[in-house]
């Protein structure tokens, strides 16, 4: 794991050394939090019906992760290891309250659709996982990079799944029709030719299957990731 | 109105924590390799949900909700001169309750029911960060159940639904070892797809109508189709 490598790191190094760059690029593909580490899917799958929701969810998670990792990393020598889970939960919960209040203030309709899933960022395993595995044992700057990498690795899968489901399920991207108008009686574009939206894509189980297919594609491209069983 | 039993059955089947809301997925996928561990974690989830949701219900209704503090002083009530609304604190309070109750439950179970502790053992601490527990509390807040009994039956129903889901996935995964899965799909990939297919199967419970026996009898023919399309619309909004 990258954590052990990090501990052995020489004290002086350039701001964006090779190792630091890897902290950002690794989680994007080969060590992606969703498809490889299987963390944080709890909240990820439920809000991928529309790109807009997925986008705001991603922004929230990036914010919470970066600041959470920074705070935990700054406090890492002060947190007694016996109570660290509770301390970490309190840090995440406070950040999530900030996110929730801001969403309610600036994008109230999105906040309504995300409903309980904003609150569930608290128990998002990616965040707790990165606190445990990285921020508790590393300096603030690498911790921020690690958070950015993992959060973006989470975000792009989220947006990709949402894109697939929104395009196939409701024929829209970010709420805008892309295949033409499908109101009954005044169809245009593809709908006039008889195209029908696949309503199955909107239903919750399809999120799982779309992620399963993404994992399939990713692992067929990189044989090293294939599991034994 | 939904009866307490309706809420229980609905939480198990129609609004299953795993298949409808994907809550507790991380531990669901990680611990479902064998039926034995699946049963252990499933029981722990039922147990902890059944304890924490009623606790959080009391907290929500007597401390956090707008005007909930009226039992302290009339002025703090909804119509009082000095209404207090602490609901912005609910995330931090709920997670604090969950984390401390899990700790407490772990100690109590170890002391008074060593056999149960042996069975749940390592799973109890894991549960503090299981999304389904906090999710149960947040859904309880969102849906505003009218009595603590309803909230408890929702919690137990969700727990049982989660239990059924993890045990059946574990059973399938035990068998899948003998099948010839494409290499790139082995492990995680096929687990996702299996869960998705199970979710589709569970969606057949969606047409079940709750709490309106007489009405249902009179318009079963026309009602069924409408109901399904309505549910799909609701999902779209969510």
Task: Report on this structure.
Chain A has helices spanning 2-7, 18-25, 41-46, 51-74, 84-106, 108-114, 116-119, 125-133, 140-170, 204-221, and strands at residues 172-173, 176-177. In chain A, a hairpin with a 2-residue loop joins β1 (172-173) and β2 (176-177). Chain A has a domain at 40-165. With 229 residues, chain A is mainly alpha-helical. Helix content of chain A is 59%, strand content 2%. Chain A is built from 10 helices and 2 strands; from the N terminus they run αααααααααββα. In chain A, strands 1-2 form a two-stranded antiparallel sheet. In chain A, α2 (18-25) packs parallel to α9 (140-170), α4 runs antiparallel to α9 (140-170) and α9 crosses α10 (204-221). Chain B is mainly α and 238 residues long. Chain B folds into 2 domains: 4-207, no CATH class; 212-238. In chain B, 70% of the residues lie in helices and 0% in strands. Chain B is built from 12 helices and no strands. The longest helix of chain B has 30 residues, at 35-64. Chain B is globular. Chain B starts with a helix and ends with a helix. Mean pLDDT of chain B is 80; it is low at 214-238. Classes of the chains: A mainly alpha (229), B mainly alpha (238). At the A-B interface, α3, α5 and α10 of A face α2, α3, α5, α8 and α10 of B.
Number of helices of chain A: 10
- The proportion of residues forming helix of chain B, as a percent range, comes to 55-70%
Number of E strands of chain B: 0
Taking all Cα atoms into account, the compactness measure Rg of chain B is: 20 Å
Unreliable runs of chain B, pLDDT <50, ≥5 residues? Answer: 214-238
Strand content of chain A: under 5%
Shape of chain B: globular
Biggest pleated-sheet summary of chain B: none
Mean pLDDT of chain A: 82
User: What value does the Rg of chain A take, in angstroms?
Assistant: 20 Å
How are the SSEs placed, and which strands pair?
The complex is a heterodimer of chains A (229) and B (238).
Chain A: H1 2-7, H2 18-25, H3 41-46, H4 51-74, H5 84-106, H6 108-114, H7 116-119, H8 125-133, H9 140-170, E1 172-173, E2 176-177, H10 204-221
Chain B: H1 4-12, H2 17-21, H3 25-30, H4 35-64, H5 90-112, H6 114-120, H7 123-127, H8 131-143, H9 148-176, H10 188-202, H11 213-218, H12 220-237
Helix pairs in contact in B: 1-9, 4-5, 4-8, 4-9, 5-6, 5-8
């Amino acid at each position: 794991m990258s954590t052990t490598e990090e501990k052995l790191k020489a004290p002086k190094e350039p701001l964006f050394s090779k190792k630091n760059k890897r902290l950002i690029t690794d989680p994007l593909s080969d060590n992606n939090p969703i498809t490889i580490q299987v963390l944080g899917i709890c909240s990820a799958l439920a809000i991928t019906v529309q790109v807009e929701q997925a986008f705001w969810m991603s922004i929230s998670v990036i914010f919470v992760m970066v600041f959470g990792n920074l705070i935990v990393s700054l406090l890492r020598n002060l947190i007694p290891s016996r109570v660290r889970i509770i301390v970490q939960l309190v840090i995440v919960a406070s950040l999530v309250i900030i996110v929730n209040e801001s969403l309610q203030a600036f994008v109230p309709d999105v906040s309504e659709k995300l409903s309980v899933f904003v609150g569930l960022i608290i128990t998002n395993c990616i965040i707790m996982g990165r606190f445990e595995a990285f921020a508790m044992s590393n300096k603030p700057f690498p911790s921020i990079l690690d958070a950015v990498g993992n959060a973006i690795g989470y975000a792009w899968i989220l947006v990709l799944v949402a894109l697939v489901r929104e395009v196939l399920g409701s024929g829209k991207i970010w709420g805008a029709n892309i295949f033409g108008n499908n109101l009954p009686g005044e169809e245009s574009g593809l709908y006039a030719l008889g195209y029908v939206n696949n309503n199955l894509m909107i239903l919750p189980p399809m999120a799982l299957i779309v992620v399963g297919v993404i994992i399939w594609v990713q692992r067929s491209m990189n044989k090293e990731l294939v599991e034994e069983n | 109105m939904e009866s307490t039993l309706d809420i229980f059955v609905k939480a198990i089947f129609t609004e299953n924590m795993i298949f409808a809301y994907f809550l507790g997925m991380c531990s669901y996928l990680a611990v479902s390799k064998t039926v034995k561990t699946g049963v252990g974690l499933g029981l722990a989830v039922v147990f902890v949900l059944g304890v924490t949701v009623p606790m959080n219900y009391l907290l929500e209704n007597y401390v956090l909700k707008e005007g909930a503090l009226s039992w302290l002083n009339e002025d703090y009530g909804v119509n009082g001169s000095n209404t207090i609304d602490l609901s912005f604190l609910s995330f931090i309070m709920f997670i604090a309750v969950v984390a401390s109750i899990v700790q407490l439950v772990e100690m109590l179970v170890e002391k008074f029911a060593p056999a149960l502790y042996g069975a749940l053992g390592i799973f109890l601490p894991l549960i503090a960060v299981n999304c389904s527990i906090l999710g149960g509390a947040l859904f309880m807040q969102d849906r505003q159940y009218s009595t603590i009994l309803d909230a408890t039956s929702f919690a137990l129903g969700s727990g049982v639904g989660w239990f059924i889901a993890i045990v059946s996935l574990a059973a399938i995964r035990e068998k899948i070892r003998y099948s010839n899965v494409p290499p790139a799909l082995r492990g995680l990939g096929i687990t996702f797809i299996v869960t998705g297919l199970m979710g589709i199967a569970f969606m057949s419970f969606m047409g079940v109508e709750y709490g309106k026996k007489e009405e249902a009898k009179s318009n079963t023919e026309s009602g069924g189709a409408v109901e399904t399309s309505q549910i799909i619309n609701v999902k779209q909004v969510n």
